[in-house]
Amino acid sequence: MEQKGFCVWFIGLPFSGKKQLASMLSAKLESLGFHNEILEGGKIRREFEQDLGFTKQEIYKNIHRICFECRMLTENNIVAIAVTISPYQDLRDQCRKEIMNFVEIYCTAPLDVLKKRDNKNFYKRAEEGKIHNVAGISAPFDEPVAPDVVFRLDEDSFEKGLENIIKALQARDLIPKKQKKILTDEEEKLIRQRIKNTR
Question: Which helix (H) or strand (E) holds 7?
């Protein structure tokens, strides 16, 4: 299937549903014939530098790598799906400028909801000072200025979130609004008539 490259960039605090929603989007796009790649911030971080931390400079370094990969993918007409906290607005703005057809998805929920989903005690360890530079706890997270889609984990189902993302992609003409018919109207009519005649 002929497709144009675009990037869906998921942002939000840890455990806000980014990975699950991104995975659902990837499967949906695959079913529509769109080749896509998921790039997770944590995996990219470990792949390039095991000891890369979470200072502002180190976050910028990791995001620049993800941005570069997304740009290469989209320029080769592949859909890039980035999953990363991306806490700084200026950095997200830079990515939007560098990557064609950039679509920002903001996953959010109240902190108490995120803590309940935290099966790694990430927030607890941050509050106890055992880990540092955690967005939303001991490091800033800039609320996005104008995300293309907002997914509210405490209000929206994942199915509804996916539906809203698909609508946003359709509105940007990145995926077709309606699927092309395999059969013409006349062929459908003939098949229906044949089925009727065999009853």
Answer: strand 7-11
